[in-house]
Each structure stands twice: as C-alpha cells, then as structure tokens.
Amino acid sequence: MYRNALVVAVAWMSVATPVAAFAQADVRANEWSRGTDITAFAGTAVESSDAAPLIGGAMGWQLTPALGIEGSGGWLDRGHGRTAFAGALQAHVRLLRARKVDPFVRAGIGLHRAEFASNEPSVPDFYRRRMTASLGAGSGRTFTDPTVVAGGGLNVPINRHLAVRPDAGATLVFRGGRTHVVTTIAVHAVYHFESHAVTPLR
Length: 202
Fold this sequence. Notes:
Helix content is 16%, strand content 56%. The chain is α+β, with helices and mostly antiparallel strands and 202 residues long. Strands 1-2-3-4-5-6-7-8 form an eight-stranded antiparallel beta barrel. The longest helix is centred in the first third of the chain and has 28 residues, at 2-29. It is elongated, with a radius of gyration of 25 Å.
C-alpha cells in the first residue's frame, strides 16, 4: 500500500513540477507581449499661450518588457486658416515593471508642419520672421521644421487588450538657431493586438 502511494506521489510530482514551471513561465511571459498596438488620442495643444484641440493616432511596437517604439501623428486647427500637423518617432520606457499602473517617459524626433494665412494676426514670432511681405491677401504660407519631442504619463490597463494612457509632453521646433515650443496634454486609448496581463498575476 505504501509502495503504491509512493509510486503515485512520485508520478504526480513528475507531472506537477513541469506544469508548475510552465505556469510560472506563462505568468512571466504574460506580463508583456512583444507585438503591435494602435492608439487614438485627443487633447489640447498650447502654443504661444494659444490653446487648440488636438487629435491623432499612433502605431507602436513592444521590443522588451521596458522598451517600446511608437510612430505618431497629431493634427490641430486653431481656426482662421491656422493649422498644424506633427509627426514623430519615439521611444517609450517603463519606469516601474509589474505594476497595475505603469508610469513611463518618452522621447524622440520628428517633423512639425504649420500653415498660416497671410492675414492671420496671431502668428508666433518664430514663423512671422520667415513670412514674406509679398504674399497676397488670402494666400498662406507653410513651414516644415525638425523637432525633438519628450514627455511622460501613465499607462492604465483596462483588460488584456485595452488601456488608457493620460500623457503630457512638449515639442521643440527648430529652425535658424531659434526654438518654438508646443506643449500637449492628451488622453490615449490603446489597443494591444496581443494579450497583455492586467496585473502580474492575471
């Protein structure tokens, strides 16, 4: 009887040990998933004390548990013929791993395209200096400049595929030794194509 019980116990341990190891590995693996996510966002952009609504989207790729890259594009319309588009490629770095709410920082480079009507009175000096007096009434001018972007926020998982990401950042626009700053505050809705754990255990 005892011999049979010992055989059963050994057999059980031989099966249970790999299963337990697999389960632990699965928990660790499910902390993150290498793959793509898609994002839509809305918020406010502030430029020279002038605020305007901001909308946009992004596509991201998770490289490691702590590092991801993202390409994004945002649009804003300040009215009176004044519009802008900003595109950037950024790195996202998680500051705390295995947390229900993950703070992160981001930084990257991109391009900023701004369009103004010739009679627009609130053109920032960064652009006004470059506008020519020969522009006729009703015509406009477009500027495309390189940028450096930086910011941070919180990633809040809703379930294994959806997350909400409040975020704040700044875009530094460069040209001719001068710098123009656009600050943004936005809320991102993120969809992960692969399953991501909501907490370290589920």
